[in-house]
Amino acid sequence: MTDTASGGGTHDAAELRRRTQELLAAHPVGSTGRPEFLKARYDAGLAWVHYPQGLGGLGAPRSLQAVVDAELEAAGAPDNDPRRIGIGLGMAAPTILGFGTEEQKSRFLRPLWVGEEVWCQLFSEPGAGSDLAALGTRAVRDGDSWVVNGQKVWTSSAHLARWAILIARTDPDLPKHRGITYFICDMTDPGVEVRPLRQITGEAEFNEVFLTDVRIPDAHRLGEVGDGWRVAQTTLMNERVSIGGMRIPREGGMIGPVSKTWRERPELRTHDLHQRLLTLWVEAEVARLTGERLRQQLVAGQPGYEGSGMKLSFARLNQEISGLEVELLGEEGLLYEDWTMRRPELVDFTGRDAGYRYLRSKGNSIEGGTSEVLLNIVAERVLGLPSEPRTDKDVAWKDLAR
């Protein structure tokens, strides 16, 4: 495999292997601390090889990342715990790369990838979830800064985050999709208050965030003033790919535990459950292979609206599979290990019990874009069906009924 990168130079699999081996020789896995190794990997351009040189990449084809990952995995090298920093990796980073200044890229991408700084997403609001463009959080220019006031909700990892990607309304006299600007918000600002939202699982991985006179320097604005909706589309498309198109092995994800129970507990089997399990197993495998194809398509460009379809499938399958698992287990399926109020660092579907998977999967059709909204996106943007009538597209935001 040989390709000429846009940043200059020719990169092939053999060269990437050589570079990876040089990294391993200079920083032996057994004697190099995890943070030190990850920083060295980033500086060697082996973090995300398709990123530009100096920003954790080599300007190489995206497909060659698999070569690097395989070499490092075989050597037992540490990873950057991608589940813990998934919002940064899957949403903030591609947006910063696409719209950030050179100073912003240099400041934020390295600690983001290494995992020194956790990110969260301040998009949804109590009155602007499915209709995100109706958001009312205000940002008012004050010299070289913006003063932000408002409330955000359903914010994963806000209790852990150092930084947030934030969209706020900067011009209420324009229609709702315009007059929005995209910012990077410092979550340690004294005007930022994070409150836990206890979920049906008993935990609080989500939060609501209150912003009171938060000052954001104009240097932390991404994109042009008023162009935030276009910038946010990059974030949202990458979000849906990262949720619905995760790389997993066969029988990975939710189908794994129920398949294991089926094999190990023959006394639980019935003909009806067998037929349902077979159907869901096939659908899960089709979704897995479709996700692999989607990732291969990303090699040639930016994520498209196909990620919305993958996220739809992810939510439906998780809910149906977890429901089947609870039925299969009978009375055992009604048990739940722990209702303790906790604020976890990540969602662990496969490391918990069936009751947790059943309850937590209910949120899959809400988070990352509701299934109803994604169905509209697929219908209009993928299938080319007529758009739903919208009477508010050209109405100033301040004049909308609320």
**What is the percent of helical residues?**
25-40%
Ends apart, CA distance between termini:
56 Å
How big a fraction of the residues is strand? Answer: 5-15%
**Describe the biggest sheet?**
4 strands, mixed
Low-pLDDT ranges = 1-10
Q: Could you say which structural class the secondary elements and strand pairing correspond to? A: alpha+beta
Task: Provide a descriptive summary of the structure in words.
By secondary structure, the protein is of the alpha+beta class. Helix content is 40%, strand content 14%. The strands form three sheets. The chain has a four-stranded mixed sheet. Strands 4-5-9-8 form a four-stranded antiparallel sheet, with no helix packed on it. Strands 1-2 form a two-stranded antiparallel ribbon. The longest helix has 28 residues, at 271-298. The protein is globular and about 70 Å long.
What is the compact description of this entry?
By secondary structure, this protein is of the alpha+beta class. The protein has eleven helices and ten strands. The strands form three sheets. A four-stranded mixed beta sheet has the order 3-6-7-10. Strands 4-5-9-8 form a four-stranded antiparallel beta sheet, with no helix packed on it. Strands 1-2 form a two-stranded antiparallel ribbon.
List the helices and strands and how they pair.
Blueprint: E1 2-4, E2 10-12, H1 13-26, H2 34-43, H3 65-74, H4 86-99, H5 102-114, E3 119-122, E4 138-142, E5 145-152, E6 163-169, E7 180-186, E8 192-197, E9 206-217, E10 221-222, H6 228-244, H7 255-264, H8 271-298, H9 306-329, H10 354-360, H11 371-382
Parallel strand pairs: 3-6
Antiparallel strand pairs: 1-2, 4-5, 5-9, 6-7, 7-10, 8-9
Helix pairs in contact: 1-3, 4-5, 4-6, 6-9, 7-9, 8-9, 9-10, 9-11
